[in-house]
Design a protein that fits this description.
By secondary structure, the chain is mostly helical. About 75% of the residues lie in helices and about 0% in strands. It contains 20 helices and no strands. It has helices at about 10-20, 55-75, 80-85, 90-120, 120-140, 145-160, 170-175, 180-205, 215-240, 250-260, 265-275, 280-310, 315-340, 345-365, 370-385, 390-400, 405-435, 435-455, 460-480, 485-490. The longest helix is centred in the middle third of the chain and has 31 residues, at about 280-310. It is globular and about 75 Å long. The two termini are about 25 Å apart.
């Protein structure tokens, strides 16, 4: 982070600036360095500041995202146990995961419209309220004849996911400076990944495969009560702590966005512009292919492992945990790397190619009969495939700036859900008929297609170009070429428009 102190050409202005020091950064606004008057409409760089609260906001978001993501996989990872308890088939239990994907598709556009109209706090409140309601519905569903009730609870949780899955890049842009947005986005994605990791690990431990239905009901009830308690606590914290946005924007991009009158912005027009952006359309497809493969592997992991290693439900969960933990490390490393290098396309292409390699190796080693080998290959697969998630978000923001981050992320996730459903159903049918190797080769083919398509994406880094122009304009004013702006810069009592 670079702190810049606005210094005027008079001693009085210097004193005013020292008294009202505001941290200024070259933001991401689309500005013309030759026309400083664009900076705020009055020829001045607008005041910006970073608040310590930003870390609390992103960590709270990560926490409620964690709780929601945990529930995505809690049925699938002990697929055989829930099949026995509710007397349903494997495909029905697969839908307990796929409902997360299906729900997202029709609701993402209304939710992103609501985000534009009402902001982050309303979205966070709805997300945590729905998640909390879903967990308590599940608590009431622990009887073998109440599968419909537990499915209703899972539907509520899947609806909550629509309000959180695409938010990391939005929170990063609204709260964080231009040199830390990728890292902040990675932390936001980190919560979802950690939730999936816990979802792989904890259910096989809390719900052992026992034959007594009363004992099994007790174990399932314990898991559901713990989840409900955590969800309730997070809802209360969001009500008390979560803020819409900081008083002063973190970057010139956010300052400019705040100053745009609401009547000048059209959500429909924004979506249409995104759909005419060819590099972004390619990214939508490639992101969907990669993340869709991850969803399929995660949903079907229990079946994949049990076929080669019967009775290893707990280790199936641990392998899933290994995939996601490795991916969390990959996400953080990729986020920090992007903040340092800004090599969006190169990094995205390299990680995509390594996801393909990881999938090939994972598929080839499953039948060797050594679980420790599967743990290693699964970890390598997870490092790249799950580590790709924040790369896609941040690359999308670069290609689509200055469109709303929530809208671009929503379109990426919508693609991922569509491909996730297609891949999960198709791979499941292929596994049933031809075995796990054929099912995994099926995914490898689409990862290869995605790798080639990623190489075709034109790297039009609009946010980075705008960032350079804004910094040049700010440097020009700070050097004293426009002394008349000093008072405006150093006077934080007049914040940007709240429109």
């Amino acid at each position: 982070m670079i702190e810049k102190q606005a210094i005027g050409n008079t001693e009085q202005n210097e004193d005013e600036t020292k008294a009202d020091l505001v941290k200024l950064e070259g933001g991401d606004a689309v500005l013309n360095a030759e026309d400083p008057g664009q900076l705020d409409g009055h020829g001045a760089v607008q005041p910006t500041r970073l608040y310590k609260r930003r870390w609390m906001i992103v960590l709270l978001f990560s926490s409620y995202s964690l709780c929601n993501s945990f529930q995505w996989i809690q049925y699938g990872i002990i697929n055989n146990i829930f099949m026995k308890f509710y007397s349903v088939d494997a495909f029905t239990i697969d839908w307990m995961s796929m409902i997360y994907m299906l729900t997202y598709i029709p609701f993402i556009f209304p939710v992103t419209w609501l985000l534009d109209k009402k902001g982050l706090r309303v979205i966070a409140l709805v997300a945590t309220a729905l998640n909390c309601a879903g967990t308590w519905i599940k608590v009431a569903s622990v009887k073998p004849n109440l599968f419909a009730v537990t499915f209703l609870g899972q539907f509520c949780c899947s609806f909550a996911q629509v309000f959180s899955l695409g938010m990391p890049s939005m929170i990063a842009s609204v709260w964080f400076g231009s040199e830390e947005v990728s890292t902040a986005c990675s932390i936001g994605v980190f919560g979802s990944q950690l939730g999936i990791a816990i979802g792989f690990l904890v259910p096989p431990i809390l719900v052992p495969n026992v034959d007594d239905m009363d004992e099994l009901a007790h174990h399932i009830s314990v898991m559901f009560y713990i989840t409900a308690a955590v969800a309730t606590l997070l809802f209360i914290l969001v009500v008390c702590v979560f803020q819409e946005r900081p008083p002063l924007p973190p970057t010139q991009a956010q300052a400019t966005a705040r100053s745009i009158p609401s009547g000048q912005y059209s959500y429909t027009a924004s979506v249409l512009r995104l759909l005419r952006n060819r590099p972004f359309i390619l990214l939508i497809i490639t992101y969907g292919l990669n993340v869709g493969c991850f969803y399929a592997v995660g949903t079907l992991l229990n079946r994949i492992i049990i076929e080669h290693y019967p009775g290893e439900e707990v280790n199936a969960g641990r392998i899933g945990l290994t995939i996601v933990i490795a991916g969390m490390v990959g996400s953080l490393i990729c986020g920090i790397w992007l903040d340092k290098t800004k090599t969006y396309k190169q990094t995205t292409l390299a990680v995509y190619f390594m996801s393909l390699v990881g999938m090939i190796v994972f598929a080839a080693t499953l039948s060797l009969g050594h679980l420790w080998v599967v743990f290693i290959t699964a970890g390598a697969l997870g490092f790249f495939m799950t580590g790709y998630l924040p790369l896609g978000f941040e690359f999308a923001v670069e290609l689509t700036f200055p469109e709303c981050e929530g809208t671009s992320s929503g379109l990426l996730n919508c693609s991922a859900q569509v491909f996730g459903i297609i891949f999960t159903i198709s791979q499941g049918k292929i596994i049933d008929r031809f075995g796990t190797l054929a099912g995994n080769i099926f995914l490898c083919v689409f990862l290869l297609i995605g790798t080639v398509m990623t190489g075709l994406i034109k790297s039009d880094l609009r946010r980075q170009k705008a960032n350079m122009l804004a910094k040049a304009a700010a440097a020009k004013q700070m050097s004293g070429q426009d002394y008349g702006t000093t008072t405006l810069i150093s006077n934080p009592q007049t914040p940007p428009s709240q429109a």
